[in-house]
Specification:
The protein contains 4 helices and 10 strands. The protein is α+β, with helices and mostly antiparallel strands and 226 residues long. It has a domain of 124 residues: Jelly Rolls. The strands form 2 sheets. It has a 5-stranded antiparallel sheet with strand order 1-2-9-4-7, with no helix packed on it. Strands 6-5-8-3-10 form a 5-stranded antiparallel sheet. A hairpin with an 8-residue loop joins strand 5 and strand 6. Helix 3 packs across helix 4. The N and C termini lie far apart (67 Å). The relative contact order is 0.15. It comes from Prunus dulcis. This is Germin-like protein. Belongs to the germin family. It is found in: Secreted, Extracellular space, Apoplast.
Length: 226
């Protein structure tokens, strides 16, 4: 009898554990979504409101213009053209997006992270030096590779990564991302160009530099290539 009770209890625990493993919160599709008690005062949902399917048409799933090179005459020498749910409404709920990245010679897509997406990069023209850095728990290891035309590289979700054109001509790459709204946080822009600025005492301690260095960096114009 005791054995039966033990078996039933064990099965119940396993069933509950299985339920917990299969039940999870939906992944965020924006930086945050603050809950409201009165739905009438709500503005955003986790993602986008949906159009009546009967009113959808082919243009909802269409975007044009990625064949055109973008202007890379800027401080970082690169330009990212994103195709996500903000400009291609048919991507809503589908969990994918796309970007074209143009590089001038020596152009850089600065160290950044996508908080909601893994990225897979395909080089169409040129030569890129790319890499990502692992998390603190993994020792902040750096993985790098030089990519040529036709090469592919993957940047895991949430990890800081970059791409640098090491060739003498323009370079072009296309990136696929595993979110309709992957988000982008450019590290230098976020740390030194936040609005309002981060208290300099925080940054001098974090980066172990003089206050004058932090003051100088916070006064710079941090260009957004997205």
């Amino acid at each position: 009898m005791k054995g039966d009770h033990f078996l039933i209890s064990t099965l119940a625990i396993l069933a509950f554990a299985t339920f917990l493993a299969s039940a999870y919160d939906p992944s965020p599709l924006q930086d945050f979504c603050v809950a409201v008690k009165d739905i009438k005062s709500g503005v955003f949902v986790n993602g986008k409101f949906c159009k009546d399917p009967k009113l959808a048409n082919a243009n909802d799933f269409f975007f044009s213009g990625l064949q055109n090179p973008r202007n890379t005459k800027n401080p970082v020498g690169s330009n990212v053209t994103a195709v996500n749910v903000d400009n291609l409404e048919g991507l809503n709920t589908l969990g994918i997006s796309l970007a074209r990245i143009d590089f001038a010679p020596n152009g850089l897509n600065p160290p950044h992270t996508h908080p909601r997406a893994t990225e897979i990069l395909l080089v169409l023209e040129g030569t890129l030096y790319v890499g990502f850095v692992t998390s603190n728990g993994d020792g902040n290891r750096l993985f790098t590779k030089v990519l040529n035309k036709g090469d592919v590289f993957v940047f895991p979700i949430g990890l800081i990564h970059f791409q640098l054109n090491v060739g003498h001509v323009n370079a072009v790459a296309f990136a696929g991302l595993s979110s309709q709204n992957p988000g982008v946080i450019t590290i230098a822009n976020a740390v030194f160009g936040s609005k309002p600025p981060i208290n300099p005492d925080v940054l001098t301690k974090a980066f172990q530099v003089d206050n004058k260095v932090v003051d100088y960096l916070q006064k710079q114009f941090w260009y957004d290539n997205n």
